[in-house]
Design brief:
This protein has nine helices and 36 strands. It has 672 residues and is mainly beta. A hairpin with a 4-residue loop joins strand 7 and strand 8 (169-181).
C-alpha cells in the first residue's frame, strides 16, 4: 500500500495504465484523423500567423499533413512573399520530425527539419530587413509561448539568388544540399553544385563546393573543404582554436581556369600544384573567444572581444610546382612588352602573408624575352619585398650562350630591370633585335644588353666577328650574293643605345682586311634613316669600290657624314688619296669634296696633283644602272674639267679608252 496516497500500489498501477491507454487512444485517434482537411486547416491557422509575425512578410502554405510513423508534420508549397507579391522564399516541401519529450516543459522538439527544393530570391536590403524583424521577434518575452528546439536541419536541392544594387552584383547558388546538426557540438555538411558571383568590376566567379565543419565549444574543425572551378580543385582541412590554427592545403590549378576566370586571351595551357600548410599564430594583443551559447544553428563569434587574424599572423609554407605559358602571367600583370614561352618550375612559398618569400628553380623553353628569342633558359626565381628577381640565368640563345638577370616589381609591373650577357650568338638574329639588317656577312656576336624602367630601352656593347671561309662556305645560301665591301667586313665593335625607334651608336669600329671605319651617330629604325659622322682609312680605295669599279687605286683617308636611307645611303665629306690612279692616270695625291649616293656622285671640288701637274674637276657623274652602293659601272658624265700640263693620251683615255696620242694638254673642258 502507498501510505502517502492511502492507495494500494496495484490499484495505482492499474490507474496509470488506464490513463496511458486513454492517452494512447486519443493520440491514435488524432493520428487517424491527421490527414483530414480540418487538421490541415487548424495547423495552418496556427502556423501562418506565427510565421508572418516572425518574418514580417506574407506567408502561404498549401497542404499540411500529420504523419504518425515516424511522428512528423509535412507542409507543401510553403512560400514567403513581400507586399508586392514578389517571392522571397519558396519550398516544395517542409517536413518536421517531432519529439514529444519536452512538451511538459512547453518545448517542442524538432528532431530534424527537412527543406526540399527551397528557393531564396531577394535583394540584400530585403534580407537585412527580414533578419532585423526576426531578431526583434525573438527578443520579445512571451510567458505562454511554446519554445521550439531544432536539433538538425537538412536542405535538399536548394537554391539562392541574392542581388545587391549598391554593389551592382548577384550571387547564385544552385544544387545546395546539406545538413546542420545543432547541439553542444555542431556539425555542418554542405554541397553546392554551382556557386556563381557576378559583380561589376570583378571577374565572374563560378565554382562548386563540398565541405564538412565541426563547431565545438573551444575550436573549429574543418574536416574537409573542396572547391572546384573550371577543372581546378582546392582541397583543405584544418583546426582553429584559442587564436591559433593549422590548415593543410592541396591545390591543383589549371592555368586555363585562371584564363577563363579572369577573361584572359593569351595561351592558357599548363597546371600548377601547391601543397603544404597555412598556420594562424596567436595575436597576443587580442585572442578571439569562441562560445557555443546562443549559436543555434550556426556558430557566432563574440566580435566585441574578437578580431580576425592579421596578415602578420597568417604564415604559409607551401611547395609549388607546375608549368604555364608566361604570357598569361604578363597579360594578368598588364605588361605590354613581349615576354613569351613555356615555363616550368619547382619551388616554395614561406613566411607571413604580409611579407612572404618565394623561391623556385625555373626553366623557360621556346620563349621570347623583350624580342630576344630563347631556345632554353634556366634560372633561380626569388620573390621578396614586392620584387620578383631572376638570378643566375643560363641558356641557349640564337645558337649561342646567354647569362641573364632580371627583376620586376609586383603586383603592379611598373618597372623592371634586365641584364643579358651573350656569347657567340648568330649575328643575323642579333641585328634583328634592333630591327636592322646591315647586309654584312653572317658571323658571331658577343655583347651585353641592359635595360631598366617601364619600357624596353636597352643600352650595351657588342663585338661582331665574321665567320671564317670554311664556316661561310657551309652557310653559302645565307651570304650576300656579291663580294662587295659589306661582304668583306671582318669585324665590328661598338656601343649602342635603343630608345623607341632610335638607335644611338658610339665608338663604332668597322674593319675589313684593308680598311678601317670609325663612326658615331644615330639610326632611325622607323624611317630607316642614317645620321652618322665617320672617318675612314683604307690601304686601297678599290677595297671599297670592287667589284663594281676596279680602276681606282691609292691609299685613302675620308672624314664626313653618312646619311640618307638604308637602301640608298648618302656619303658626303672630304677624301684624300695618295699614290692614286684612276683609269690608269696616276697622280701623287687626290683631294675631293663630294657627296655620293647609289646613282649619283657630286664632285663639289676635286684636285689632282703630281709633279708639274694640277687638274681640277667639278660636276656630276650619274650611275643610272647601279643596283647597289659603289656600283660605278656605266657612268654618265656632266663635268667641268681644268687640265694643266696633263699627259694628253692618259688624260683622254680616262673618258675614251681607244684614244691614242702624245704630248701635254692644258685646257678647260666640258664633258657630258
Amino acid at each position: 500500500m502507498d501510505k502517502k496516497n492511502d492507495m494500494p500500489s496495484d490499484q495505482k498501477t492499474r490507474k496509470r495504465f488506464f490513463i496511458f491507454f486513454a492517452g494512447a487512444v486519443i493520440v491514435l485517434l488524432i493520428l487517424f484523423l491527421a490527414g483530414a482537411p480540418a487538421i490541415s486547416t487548424a495547423l495552418k491557422n496556427v502556423l501562418i500567423p506565427e510565421l508572418k509575425a516572425l518574418s514580417g512578410e506574407n506567408v502561404t502554405i498549401g497542404d499540411i499533413h500529420l504523419n504518425p510513423f515516424p511522428l512528423s508534420i509535412e507542409a507543401k508549397e510553403v512560400a514567403v512573399s513581400d507586399e508586392r507579391g514578389n517571392s522571397l522564399v519558396a519550398a516544395e516541401r517542409v517536413k518536421a520530425y517531432i519529439g514529444l519529450a519536452g512538451l511538459l516543459n512547453k518545448t517542442l522538439s524538432i528532431r530534424r527539419l527537412v527543406l526540399k527544393e527551397p528557393r531564396v530570391t531577394a535583394g540584400r536590403q530585403k534580407i537585412e530587413e527580414v533578419v532585423r524583424h526576426i531578431k526583434a521577434y525573438l527578443e520579445k518575452e512571451r510567458k505562454d509561448a511554446l519554445k521550439v528546439k531544432i536539433k538538425a536541419v537538412e536542405v535538399v536541392s536548394g537554391g539562392i539568388h541574392i542581388s545587391d544594387d549598391a554593389l551592382n552584383g548577384v550571387m547564385d547558388v544552385k544544387g545546395l544540399s546539406g545538413e546542420v546538426i545543432i547541439g553542444e557540438t555542431q556539425r555542418i555538411k554542405a554541397t553546392v553544385q554551382e556557386l556563381m558571383i557576378d559583380r561589376e568590376g570583378w571577374p565572374k566567379i563560378a565554382c562548386d563546393v563540398n565541405t564538412a565543419i565541426v563547431l565545438k565549444k573551444d575550436r573549429v574543425e574543418i574536416r574537409h573543404l573542396h572547391v572546384g572551378s573550371y577543372g581546378s580543385l582546392f582541397k583543405g582541412e584544418g583546426i582553429y582554436a584559442q587564436g591559433k590554427g593549422s590548415f593543410k592545403t592541396n591545390l591543383s590549378l589549371l592555368v586555363n581556369s585562371v584564363k577563363r576566370f579572369l577573361g584572359l586571351k593569351e595561351k592558357g595551357d599548363g597546371q600548377i600544384t601547391a601543397k603544404g600548410e597555412i598556420r594562424i599564430e596567436k595575436d597576443e594583443r587580442s585572442v578571439p573567444s569562441i562560445r557555443a551559447e546562443k549559436l543555434s544553428p550556426s556558430l557566432k563569434l563574440q566580435t566585441e572581444k574578437a578580431r580576425l587574424p592579421g596578415l602578420d599572423n597568417i604564415l604559409v609554407n607551401l611547395k609549388l610546382e607546375g608549368d604555364f605559358y608566361i604570357q598569361t602571367l604578363m597579360e594578368l600583370l598588364k605588361v605590354k612588352e613581349r615576354i613569351e614561352g613555356l615555363i616550368d618550375f619547382d619551388g616554395e612559398i614561406t613566411g607571413p602573408l604580409s611579407d612572404f618569400t618565394g623561391r623556385a628553380r625555373a626553366r623557360l623553353q621556346k620563349g621570347n624575352l623583350f624580342t630576344v628569342d630563347i631556345e632554353s633558359l634556366k634560372c633561380n626565381v626569388i620573390y621578396k619585398n614586392g620584387v620578383i628577381t631572376f638570378e643566375d640565368g643560363y641558356g641557349m640563345v640564337y645558337n649561342g650562350i646567354a647569362h641573364a638577370d632580371a627583376s620586376m616589381h609586383l603586383p603592379v609591373a611598373d618597372g623592371f630591370t634586365v641584364n643579358v650577357k651573350f656569347q657567340a650568338i648568330d649575328s643575323r638574329s642579333a641585328f634583328k633585335l634592333i630591327r636592322w639588317d646591315p647586309g654584312i656577312p653572317d658571323g658571331k656576336v658577343d655583347g651585353e644588353l641592359l635595360t631598366s624602367g617601364s619600357e624596353f630601352s636597352p643600352d650595351g656593347w657588342f663585338v661582331y666577328k665574321a665567320l671564317g671561309a670554311v664556316q661561310r662556305a657551309r652557310k653559302k645560301e645565307t651570304q650576300p650574293p656579291t663580294d662587295n665591301v659589306l661582304n668583306r667586313i671582318t669585324d665590328i665593335k661598338g656601343n649602342y643605345s635603343l630608345r623607341g625607334a632610335h638607335v644611338s651608336l658610339s665608338n663604332l669600329k668597322i674593319n675589313t682586311s684593308l680598311s678601317n671605319i670609325s663612326a658615331n651617330g644615330t639610326i632611325d629604325l622607323e624611317s630607316k634613316a642614317l645620321n652618322l659622322t665617320s672617318s675612314l682609312v683604307t690601304e686601297t680605295i678599290s677595297d671599297l669600290t670592287s667589284p663594281y669599279y676596279r680602276e681606282a687605286e691609292g691609299r685613302g683617308d675620308f672624314s664626313g657624314e653618312i646619311g640618307g636611307s638604308f637602301d640608298d645611303p648618302r656619303i658626303s665629306g672630304r677624301v684624300t688619296l695618295t699614290n692614286s690612279a684612276i683609269e690608269g692616270y696616276k697622280t701623287d695625291n687626290f683631294i675631293a669634296d663630294f657627296s655620293y649616293q647609289k646613282n649619283l656622285l657630286h664632285l663639289r671640288e676635286s684636285l689632282f696633283r703630281s709633279r708639274g701637274e694640277e687638274h681640277r674637276v667639278k660636276g656630276k657623274i650619274s650611275f643610272p644602272e647601279a643596283k647597289e652602293i659603289f656600283d660605278l659601272s656605266m657612268p654618265v658624265y656632266d663635268l667641268s674639267v681644268t687640265l694643266r700640263k696633263a699627259d694628253f693620251e692618259r688624260a683622254v683615255k680616262v673618258f675614251y679608252k681607244e684614244f691614242t696620242g702624245t704630248g701635254t694638254l692644258s685646257a678647260d673642258l666640258k664633258i657630258g
